[in-house]
Amino acid sequence: xxxxxxxxxxxxxxxxxxxxxxxxxxxxxxxxxxxxxxxxxxxxxxxxxxxxxxxxxxxxxxxxxxxxxxxxxxxxxxxxxxxxxxxxxxxxxxxxxxxxxxxxxxxxxxxxxxxxxxxxxxxxxxxxxxxxxxxxxxxxxxxxxxxxxxxxxxxxxxxxxxxxxxxxxxxxxxxxxxxxxxxxxxxxxxxxxxxxxxxxxxxxxxxxxxxxx
Length: 213
Prior knowledge:
The chain folds into 2 domains: about 180 residues, Cytochrome c-like domain (Cytochrome Bc1 Complex, Chain D, domain 2), CATH 1.10.760.10; about 35 residues. It has 9 helices and 4 strands. The N terminus is likely disordered.
């Protein structure tokens, strides 16, 4: 448990000091299934080799509507209720990075700035004139540039990377709170029920008071 919280604080191999000069880009989560499906696909291709999502199972992806053939390809011989474990063992991660990469299940909830932070972080990589890769959001990050933003100068390619980051963060936002949209929908029904109930009670009250008068 302590290891998990330490990993969250490190957040993708970064220093806990937020760059005072960095500004987060405003991010709007896309809750549509196609965007989330693209996001999980991109995440499995770019992040899954090092990062776990231990609160998300392959069964959760199936219930969401992700293509079953893709899920079977990702899980291999693991059961459907297995979590999305990284391809790298903790021992190998310690040897390579001197720490275990943090779990991504709750990442958009764990960081100040939420989804905007994660999105800005993914796009914040750049190369210095001497060829060293840094990140505008956390200059001391040790995580390599996963989407290649620092090495791309072509405008079309950078826009494509932005779309990929957008979909990944949309999926991570879903992973952090899979039932958020259900709660919103339920909230509308509850509010509607309360409005109707209030109106009915108001008319009943008027009926009762009209008789008393």
